[in-house]
């Protein structure tokens, strides 16, 4: 590079001021490369955060569904959970009690039992130690036709 000629000043005492065009272009290229890398890093970080939020929402929904499923199966009549296509089908237990004596030799119209803590509503059925297919409503001893339960001060009969 040539030194500039300044009248009245010795060429040895002249200093350069500023940058050359090549230096400016090199700096601009380096800054462009750094900015592209930085923008890409920030974009990937934002996408990772969005994916994490989506996965957390899905996991929360799955936890809720599993909790509901667990509660339904836990309160179901033993032997009643079954799959029906893509659905899980259960027979819920509304109330439970203990019986004093139950006829085993022949069908009976009623039997004495402790009064349940929650009296079942209309349309309730009784299941006594179900061991067969609980969905076969015509099977003897599995699930009864609709029942009536006497009040706690009554004779504690299930009819």
How would you portray this structure in words?
The chain is 34% helix and 11% strand. With 159 residues, the chain is α+β, with helices and mostly antiparallel strands. The strands form three sheets. Strands 1-2 form a two-stranded antiparallel sheet. A two-stranded antiparallel sheet has the order 3-6. Strand 1 and strand 2 (87-89) form a beta hairpin. The radius of gyration is 42 Å and the shape is rod-shaped. The chain has one helix at residues 21-74; strands at 82-84, 87-89, 111-112, 125-127, 143-146, 157-158.
Oligomeric organization of the protein chains: single chain
| H/E topology pattern | HEEEEEE
Share of helix, binned: 25-40%
Per the principal axes of the C-alpha atoms, what is the gross shape? rod-shaped
- Count every helix, treating DSSP H or I runs of 4 or more residues as helices: 1
Protein structure class: alpha+beta
What does the radius of gyration come to?
42 Å
The mean pLDDT is 76
Span between termini: 114 Å
Q: What share of residues are in beta strands? A: 5-15%
Give the total of beta strands. Answer: 6
Low-pLDDT windows of residues = none
Strand order of the largest sheet: 1-2
Describe the sheet with the most strands.
2 strands, antiparallel
